[in-house]
């Protein structure tokens, strides 16, 4: 009982760190906040493993720490440091206050949806499951609601973290190969999107997605 309460409470920090990533004024700062969020995700994996007795989740935790807490933020920091753009802080479609209110509404809506779920594995962790679903939509909102290309890359990372937590809650005994596949996809996707962002910045002199309106051969 105490384990599930801790997991449900700790999952709330994912929403806080997601907002920090989405609202960070500089890409390097956003990368550091993403590393912090991934550390919270690893702690959730360990807590779920202790509660469910899943040895697979301990392996998930180790691989997630290497890829999400260390590898991906280091890649982002090295690549994005060259792309410091004053437009990053002003690229949001919605102001910060409205983004926070929107995040709260998304969490409430997702909890209302998850409250109808009757899967045995999800019953004690419904708040955490609702937050994982809300986290996915927050990442999607970051992609849609941010005009800066780098922030859209972080939106993808947030979506991936939300999906990862959902899988850990609903299928804690899934083979380690599943987690390795997800983590590998995330690393390669971040590298590809970061490279594209660098090339776009060099070509257009900007990271504003609104300027990607003309195809040049």
UniProtKB/TrEMBL annotation:
GO terms for cellular component: plasma membrane. The chain crosses the membrane at residues 6-24, 31-51, 57-76, 88-114, 126-146, 177-196. It is a multi-pass membrane protein. Keywords: Cell membrane, Membrane, Transmembrane, Transmembrane helix. The keyword Iron-sulfur does not apply. InterPro entries: HyfE-like, NUOK/Mnh_C1-like. The keyword Metal-binding does not apply. Pfam families: Oxidored_q2. It is found in: Cell membrane. Coiled coil: none annotated. Its main location: membrane. PANTHER family: HYDROGENASE-4 COMPONENT E. NCBIfam families: PRK11492.1. This is Hydrogenase-4 component E.
């Amino acid at each position: 009982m105490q384990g599930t309460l801790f997991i449900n409470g700790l999952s709330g920090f994912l929403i806080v760190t997601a907002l920090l990533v989405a609202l960070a004024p500089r890409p390097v700062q956003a990368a550091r906040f993403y590393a912090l969020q991934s550390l919270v995700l690893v702690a959730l994996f360990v807590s779920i493993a202790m509660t469910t007795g899943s040895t697979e989740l301990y392996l998930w935790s180790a691989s997630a720490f290497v890829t999400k807490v260390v590898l991906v933020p280091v890649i982002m920091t090295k690549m994005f440091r060259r792309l410091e753009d004053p437009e990053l802080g002003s690229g949001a479609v919605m102001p910060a206050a409205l983004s926070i209110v929107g995040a709260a509404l998304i969490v409430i809506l997702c909890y209302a949806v998850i409250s109808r779920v009757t899967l045995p594995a999800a019953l004690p962790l419904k708040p955490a499951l609702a937050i994982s679903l809300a986290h996915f939509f927050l990442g999607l909102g970051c992609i849609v609601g941010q005009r800066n290309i780098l922030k859209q890359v972080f939106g993808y990372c947030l979506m991936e973290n939300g999906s990862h937590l959902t899988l850990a809650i609903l299928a804690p005994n899934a083979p380690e190969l599943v987690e390795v596949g997800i983590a590998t996809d995330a690393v390669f996707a971040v590298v590809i999107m970061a490279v594209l962002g660098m090339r776009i910045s060099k070509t257009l002199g900007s990271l504003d997605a609104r300027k990607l309106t003309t195809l040049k051969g």
